[in-house]
Amino acid sequence: MTGKTMMAGLAAAVLMLSYPTGKAVAAAPKAPAGAMFGYQGKNLDFELVNRTGYELKHVLVAPAGTPKWSWDDDVLHGRRFEDNTKLNITFPHYVRARHWDIRVYYDNDAYKDFLNLNLDDIHKVTLWYDHRADKTRAEIE
C-alpha cells in the first residue's frame, strides 16, 4: 500500500481537546513507517486553535508528501472541534517527519488543506474563516 494509509501503527501523539468545561483526550495522528529513520525533530508539538466561527468535524494530521488522506489521520475520531477552542498536539520523541499536512473539514464537507508545515518552527496554528473571501486561512506562529 502507498499513501497516507500506510501510517498506521508507529506513533501516536497525545492530544488534548480543550473545551470551556474541561479537557478530553482525543486520538492521535499516525507516523509513516519510514518516519522511524532519518530526521530527528526538535519539538514537533503545536497548538491548533479554531477561530473560524464554526465547529469543525474532522482534523486530519499526516506527514507531508504522501499522496492520499485517510480517515485514520483524523485526530478527533468522532469528536467535534468547536469554535474558540484549542487542540494541543504532541508527538512522541521517536516521530521523525519534519513537515506535516493538516486538513480541516466543516459540517458541509468543505475542507481546507495546510501543506508542508515545518513543525520544528511552529508552536501555534490559528485557523480563521474569512467570510468576504469565503476561505479558511491559518495564522502560523
SSE layout:
Layout: E1 15-19, E2 22-26, E3 46-51, E4 56-63, E5 85-89, E6 99-106, E7 111-118, E8 124-130, E9 135-140
Parallel strand pairs: 3-8
Antiparallel strand pairs: 1-2, 1-5, 3-5, 4-6, 6-7, 8-9
CATH top level assignment: Mainly Beta
CA radius of gyration: 14 Å
Give the topology string: H per helix, E per strand. Answer: EEEEEEEEE
Average pLDDT confidence is 76
- CATH architecture term: Sandwich
How many beta strands in the DSSP annotation? 9
Q: Flag low-confidence runs.
A: 1-28, 33-38
The main sheet comes to: 6 strands, mixed
Distance linking N and C termini: 35 Å
Overall description:
The chain is built from no helices and nine strands. The protein has 141 residues and is mainly beta. It has a single domain (4-140), classed as Sandwich (Immunoglobulin-like). The strands form two sheets. A six-stranded mixed β-sheet has the order 2-1-5-3-8-9, with no helix packed on it. 30% of the residues are buried.
Which features does this protein show?
Immunoglobulin-like, 0% helix, disordered N terminus
In a few lines, what is going on in this structure?
With 141 residues, the protein is an all-beta fold. The chain has no helices and nine strands. 0% of the residues lie in helices and 41% in strands.
